[in-house]
Design brief:
The protein is an alpha+beta fold. It contains 6 helices and 7 strands; from the N terminus they run ββββαααβαβααβ. Keywords: ATP-binding, Kinase, Nucleotide-binding, Transferase.
Length: 241
């Protein structure tokens, strides 16, 4: 059996206070029924010693792959991070990770994707270190539309990564989608905020919070959980609706 997990996170809409929230004021926001989905699969011995970390961005047609040895070379301290304690990526580390991204050719029209790939590499190596894996991302959210596509990207990444970590408890014995508890949701949200900081610099945190908790009321109150998981065999996977 191959270990796989899928997480999905919704986009958001800010009804009031979009600019004020950046300065610490309250805002009214809600999650929307458009999602970003992430599938994470750890490589097994049957994968012919595929010792790489691979990222497939399905909607933009971009694929990235790094030998684990190369990641270790650029980020020798990547195994020192504790998944249960989110940390901020330093400017120096962002520059190092950028060298990994620059090893792949990104079309000029899609160069904005680069910061998201940097966030991916930071979040993955911080949570799973140098473990070989394949990550696939698809989204119903249009990029740059103000609907929280980057936050949904970060939240779904963190949901999948933490779902197969030792830092959270997920009941894989049940069938269908399963939700994180509040404590686990908080951890997802904190890591996703670190990813948003890489992409946007100084985000307010409202986008990733709404995407994590599915809020439909004031910024300070969580109402609905939207992160889901499923594990299934490699040979005969279940369909997930």
């Amino acid at each position: 059996m191959t270990m796989e997990v899928r997480a999905r996170a919704p986009g958001k809409i800010i009804l009031a206070g979009e600019h004020a929230v950046v300065h610490g004021s309250a805002a009214v926001a809600a999650s929307i029924g458009l999602y970003t989905s992430v599938t994470l699969r750890f490589h097994s011995p049957s994968d012919n010693d595929d010792n790489t970390l691979t990222l497939h961005l399905m909607d933009v047609g971009l694929n990235f792959s790094w030998p684990i040895g190369r990641i270790k070379e650029v980020l020798p301290d990547s195994t020192n991070t504790i998944a249960s304690s989110p940390t901020t990526c330093s400017p120096e580390t962002i520059k190092l990770i950028a060298t990994l991204v620059e090893e792949h050719e990104i079309p000029e029209t899609k160069i904005g994707i680069a910061s998201g790939v940097i966030a991916f590499l930071w979040l993955y190596t911080s949570i799973h270190g140098n473990k070989a894996a394949t990550v696939s991302v698809s989204s119903e959210l249009p990029l740059g539309s103000g609907l929280g596509s980057s936050a949904a990207f970060c939240v779904s990444l963190c949901g999948a990564f933490l779902g197969l970590s030792d830092s959270v408890k997920v009941d894989f014995g049940q069938h269908g989608w399963a939700a994180f508890g509040e404590k686990e949701q908080q951890l997802v949200n904190k890591w996703a905020f670190e990813g948003e900081k890489i992409i946007h610099g100084k985000p307010s945190g409202i986008d990733n919070t709404v995407s994590t908790f599915g809020m439909s009321d004031n910024y300070h109150f969580a109402l609905v959980f939207f992160i889901f998981f499923q594990q299934y065999p490699k040979i005969k996977p279940k369909s997930i609706l």
